[in-house]
Amino acid sequence: MISAIVLSAGKGKRMGNDRPKQYMDLWGKPVICHTLSAFESSHVDEVILVTAEDDIEICQKDLVLKYGFRKVKKIVAGGEARYDSVYEGLKAAEGEYVLIHDGARCLITADVIDDAIKWVKKYDACVVGMPSKDTVKIADQDSYVESTPKRDNVWIIQTPQCFKKDLIRKAFDRMYEKKDFSGITDDAMVAERFMDTKVKLVEGSYDNIKITTPEDLITAEMIIKHRKES
Predict the structure, then answer these.
(1) CA 155, CA 116: separation in Å to the nearest integer?
(2) pLDDT digits over 15-30, tens only?
(3) How many Cβ atoms from other residues are within 10 Å of residue 14's Cβ?
(4) 8 A C-beta contact, residue 157 and residue 126
(5) Span between the terminal Cα atoms of the chain, in Å
(6) In angstroms, rounded to a whole number, what is the distance separating the alpha carbons of residues 9 and 136?
(7) In the predicted model, what is the mean pLDDT of residues 153-171?
(8) Domains of the chain (ranges plus CATH)?
(9) Predicted structure pTM score
């Protein structure tokens, strides 16, 4: 059984809008609906939607029931930080493997999801990403260039991030036991730090952008338009 944890509890402050970004309109429906539609069309068996506690009822009524998302089996309340929301999702997930995805990455496709499922079954831990198109500079504390990593070795990490559930659940348990949350920005870091796990990088899509600023909505509209015209 494959579970997907879709994170939709963020406030999206950088959007400059009172409405959380995942509920803003994109091509005639909320951003999060595009995300859930991709998982609905994939080989995922269950979706755990993690949202703000106050939004659980409206998500059930205005998203799951209205758009007929049959694979959304549970809607659970998230926490203060992203890793808190992931942890709540992990507690609710029943699959042998789990895919953790940011709800604001609404251009994910069923093909990328299904590829991720294939790779996590082989490697137990993998993350979707793409090789960087740009040269990356590492800065020191005064914003001077400290080093320039070889571009061939630099990847831009996306989601879903995929794991055998027992592995990632144990990693999160250890993180909370040790109360060591410093510098944790994605799920792979938890597996790397607390389980000493090697995480495989697998190619996703350059289209798999995250809606973070108003400009991203414009880009997303253009990508959707192009897909529908192709």
Answers:
(1) 16
(2) 445 667 788 999 999 9
(3) 12
(4) no
(5) 33
(6) 30
(7) 98
(8) 2-229 (3.90.550.10)
(9) 0.95
